[in-house]
Amino acid sequence: MYKNAPFWKRFGTNLIDLAIVIGFCILIYIAGGSSQPASDKTQQGLDPKFFYTSISLSIVLINFYYLITPIFFHGRTIGMLIYKIKIIDTDTKDFKYYKLIMRNILGSIYVSVLLIIVMAVIDPSNDFVYAPDKDGVSKLVFKFQTIKESKDFTTHDQIVQLATGVVAALFSLWLAINTIGYAMNIIYSKKLSLVDLVSSTRIVNQEPQATIDVKEIHLLPFFDTTRKWKYFKDTTTIGE
143 lies in a domain? Predict the structure, then answer.
């Protein structure tokens, strides 16, 4: 019998896993670098090769970490190894890979779909420009953000604007789902989140609790020798 992991363990695990994934994504970005000179930040956008390669590698990394790593560690990520918790199937109490995929429909798979939408819609060489902010510092922004008149919007600009709004809304929904899950984990007596209930999985402490089988409990007759009893046939002699 396994005990469901408390909120603080799950939250700490997610922080560690997120830090690892974001850290590697940043390394991918740094390693890729930008192909354009730093002094040439005028109106050109991002290098397409750098843009698509960085996002593609990030998608591979995210899914490898959340979908492949638990296979090697039997239902555990690195964060789970540190906090000594794991993922199990609610019914079988074992790790099932298809249940891991179900959990990540609202996790790494969801985030990957958002990144794929970004790659499919955005043209990095044309949809990004370097524009000065209020302090005069050149920063990379979407081109549609610099357009003053609506008549200057092209159909593609409108599609990009719509797509970025949809992605932002879906990402906010993802954050809301995770927030609700944490709240349920704190309030719900069984320590289950929304994802746990939807995927029929549990995140539990690594070691099972010791249980006693009722069948192993035997009631045996017991003779108490700690107290001596006196028996009287005639109650009138009591006290003599």
Answer: yes
